[in-house]
Specification:
By secondary structure, the protein is α/β, with parallel strands linked by helices. It has eight helices and eight strands. The strands form two sheets. The chain has a six-stranded parallel sheet, with helices on both faces. Strands 6-7 form a two-stranded antiparallel sheet. Helix 2 crosses helix 8 and helix 3 runs parallel beside helix 5.
Length: 243
C-alpha cells in the first residue's frame, strides 16, 4: 500500500507531538536543587535544641529523594549581604528561596526609642528606615533575578516577645518591611511564603526572633511544596500557605 504525502506529514507531526510530550514528562521529573539565601531563619541550627534538626536538614527530608538543598544563608546577614551569598550559587541550582529582612529591622530598631512629639513625627522616623530597606531589598532582588532561577520570597515573621508593648510595636514596625517584600513579589510575579501566617504558635519559636525545630519543619514543608508544586512559568504572585 502506497503512503501519500499527507499521511507522511501527519505521521511526522504525530511523532513530533509524542516526542514533545515525552520530553515534557521527563522535564517534570527532573531533579531540583533548592538554594536558601538570607539569614538565621534558614541558618537556625545553633538555636534549636541539641539533637534537633535545622531548616536545611528538614528541607532535605521533605524534598523528593532525587532533589538537593544547599544552605547559603548566614546567621546575622542582612539584605545587603545576600548579594555576596549569590557568589556561592551552585551551577546546577534550580530554585532560590530568600528569607531576609529581620536583621535589617534589628539594626534599625533604635528608631523605635527615639523621642517624638506626636504620631506624625513618630511615623516620619520610620520613613527613612523604610526608604533604605526598599533600596537595599530591590537591589538584592535585581541581583537574584539576574541568575534566572525560579525564586520565592519570604516575609519577615512577627517576633514572639513576652513584653506586650515590645511585641505590638515590633509587629507594627515590621509592616514597613513586609510591605516592601510583598510589593516586590507582586511586581516580579514571584511566590511569597508569608511567615506571619505560618508561624502562629509560641512553639514555632526557639527564642523571640528565631525559629524552633517545630517552626522550621513547617517552613521546610512549605518550601518543598512551593519549589516542587508552584508553576513558575506563570508570573503571578501566589501567597503560601494558601487556603
Amino acid at each position: 500500500m502506497s503512503i501519500t504525502r499527507r499521511q507522511m506529514i501527519m505521521s511526522s507531526l504525530g511523532a513530533t507531538v509524542v516526542a514533545a510530550l515525552s520530553s515534557g514528562a521527563t522535564g517534570a521529573r527532573k531533579a531540583g536543587h533548592v538554594v536558601l539565601l538570607g539569614d538565621s531563619i534558614f541558618d537556625n541550627q545553633v538555636y534549636v535544641e541539641p539533637g534537633e534538626p535545622g531548616v536545611i536538614d528538614q528541607l532535605r527530608k521533605h524534598l523528593p529523594e532525587d532533589w538537593r538543598a544547599t544552605l547559603l544563608a548566614v546567621d546575622g546577614d542582612t539584605t545587603v549581604d545576600v548579594v555576596n551569598q549569590l557568589k556561592g550559587l551552585p551551577d546546577d541550582a534550580t530554585h532560590i528561596v530568600i528569607s531576609v529582612g529581620g536583621n535589617d529591622g534589628l539594626q534599625a530598631s533604635g528608631v523605635l526609642s527615639q523621642p517624638a512629639s506626636d504620631v506624625q513625627s513618630a511615623l516620619l522616623h520610620m520613613v527613612g528606615v523604610r526608604k533604605e530597606f526598599k533600596r537595599n531589598y530591590n537591589t538584592m532582588i535585581d541581583a537574584v533575578l539576574a541568575a534566572k532561577k525560579p525564586t520565592t520570597l519570604c516575609t519577615v515573621y512577627d517576633p514572639n516577645f513576652a513584653d506586650g508593648i515590645e511585641q505590638r510595636v515590633s509587629v507594627l514596625a515590621l509592616t514597613a518591611f513586609n510591605d516592601i517584600i510583598t510589593r516586590a513579589a507582586v511586581r516580579h510575579g514571584l511566590p511569597v511564603i508569608d511567615l506571619r501566617i505560618l508561624f502562629d504558635k509560641p512553639a514555632d519559636y526557639a527564642n523571640p526572633i528565631e525559629p524552633s525545630a517545630i517552626g522550621g519543619d513547617k517552613l521546610a514543608r512549605t518550601i518543598a511544596a512551593v519549589t516542587t508544586g508552584n508553576d513558575f512559568n506563570i508570573t503571578r504572585c501566589q501567597v503560601y500557605p494558601g487556603k
